[in-house]
Each structure stands twice: as structure tokens, then as C-alpha cells.
Write a structure and sequence with these properties.
This protein is an alpha/beta fold. The protein has 7 helices and 8 strands.
Length: 258
């Protein structure tokens, strides 16, 4: 997953040494995993977002208290990035109406690429929470990732049902993937064929924090390397399952999909 470059907003506060300690830690961690942050937006007057996480040592569930006054990425910020340097851009459904504009900016770039006979940028979108207007992202993604929460709030009762149902609403040629936690995940390709994959839980669940993001990263990583949808789905499920077996993400470096 280290080859996937993720757009991350990083802020810094010039008043306290403590903040710079946090910032230094964050940048060092990104560098350790080979994640580029040169295109990130810096906000000098804002504090670094923080989360306090309480883990249940019995079942690995967690409670998160999060604080952030960091502004969402804007179209003005996004257009300063040279999107031609990227082959894949992923959008989480945080600020849907602004993201619609960003995706249309990518689509314009793809039109230029298409005329030049160049490979187009793949756009993936995640519909995680039922925020206002988040559904507007659905018909814009080449790969649409739907959470269990979003699916159930929209009347679906299984990953397979959700993948097929949202595929009908997606654009032509798009694929839809829905993870369903401990049950596994399902995906629907552009022809309407549904693939299912079971979960791969570790011997002991230690830390589920970030399992969903790990699933998304594994899916994108595998698809970006040219694997088929079924193969990518299985890889993502195995990677997310492995992540639940240890604290943090360091051990993902040693992950091998058998």
C-alpha cells in the first residue's frame, strides 16, 4: 500500500513547541511509509487534528474522541495540484459538493488525456457516512466504495445487495464495492456480476482502528496494479483482517497474501 499516494491535509501551529513535536512525528511517520506529502495544504493558524482512542482489550472495539478545526480541502487548493502526475485519485465523502467540482476538474484532465491517447486517471470515491449530498459522488466514481453503515441507512441488508443496488446508480463502466465488517465484502462489476469474499479474521482481534481504511487502501492498491476485481476484493479482505491482529500499521509491511 506504500505505493499509493494519499492527499493528506497537514496543518501546523507556530506558537507551541508541543505542536511542532506532533507535526514532526506526523511527517516522520508519513516519510517512513513512503507517503508523499509535498502537495498537502498547510494551515499556519490551525492546530493539528488529534484523536484520543480507547481500545477494548476484550474484543478490539474502540471509542474515539476527535478534535479538528482544520478546513476541508477546497477546489482552489485542489487545482494547484498537477493532477497529471497521478494515475489514481481517491475522494472520501467529507465535503461532497466541493469534491464534485474536484472530480469534474479531473474529468476535464482525462478528456485531454483521452485525446492524446494517454491513460486516464482513475477516480475512486468512498460513501461512508450519510452526509448531505454525499450521494452526488456515486455517479462520478470509476470505483465506488460503500460502507456498511451507508448501505444499511439506504435500505440494504447485505454487502451483495448493496453492491448490486448501488451499481445500478453508478456510471457506466464503474464498479461498486461494499465491505460488511466481520461478514466479509462484496463487489459488483460493470456487467452486474457480483463477487463475494469472506472476512479473514486474525487469531485474536487486537485493534480494529483503521481496518476500513486498510481495506480501501488494499483494494485500490490491488486494482491499480492491474488485478481483477475478485482478486482485489480478496486481497483487501485479507489485508484488513491481518491489520486487526496488531496495534497500528507497521506490521502491514510484512503482509503476504497467500
Amino acid at each position: 500500500c506504500n505505493s499509493i499516494q494519499v492527499f493528506i491535509c497537514i496543518c501546523f501551529h507556530q506558537c507551541t513547541d508541543l505542536f511542532f513535536t506532533f507535526l514532526s512525528f506526523a511527517l516522520k511517520h508519513l516519510n517512513t511509509f513512503g507517503i508523499s506529502h509535498g502537495s498537502c495544504v498547510l494551515y499556519p493558524s490551525h492546530k493539528l487534528p488529534t484523536s484520543c482512542v480507547v481500545l477494548n482489550t476484550t474484543n478490539g472495539s474502540r471509542t474515539i474522541v476527535h478534535y479538528s478545526n482544520l478546513p476541508e480541502l477546497t477546489l482552489s487548493d485542489f487545482t494547484k495540484i498537477n493532477v497529471s502526475e497521478y494515475s489514481w485519485i481517491h475522494f472520501e465523502g467529507r465535503n461532497p459538493l466541493e469534491y464534485v467540482k474536484m472530480i469534474r476538474h479531473v474529468m476535464a484532465s482525462n478528456e485531454t488525456r483521452r485525446k492524446a491517447g494517454e491513460r486516464e486517471i482513475t477516480v475512486s470515491v468512498e460513501l461512508e457516512k450519510n452526509k448531505p449530498n454525499v450521494g452526488k459522488l456515486l455517479p462520478l466514481g470509476d470505483v465506488v466504495i460503500v460502507s456498511r453503515l451507508y448501505a444499511t441507512l439506504n435500505g440494504y441488508h447485505s454487502a451483495e445487495e448493496a453492491a448490486l443496488g448501488f451499481r445500478v446508480k453508478a456510471k457506466d463502466g464503474a464498479v461498486v464495492v461494499c465491505a460488511w465488517g466481520e461478514v466479509g465484502a462484496a463487489a459488483c462489476d460493470s456487467s452486474g456480476k457480483v463477487f463475494s469474499c469472506p472476512a479473514y479474521p486474525p487469531p485474536a482481534v487486537v485493534d480494529t482502528l483503521g481496518a476500513g481504511d486498510t481495506f480501501n487502501a488494499g483494494l485500490i492498491h490491488s486494482l491499480a496494479r492491474g488485478n481483477g476485481l475478485e482478486t482485489a476484493l480478496k486481497f483487501a479482505c485479507k489485508l484488513a483482517g491481518a491489520k486487526c491482529g496488531f496495534l497500528g500499521y507497521e506490521q502491514l509491511r510484512n503482509f503476504e497474501s497467500n
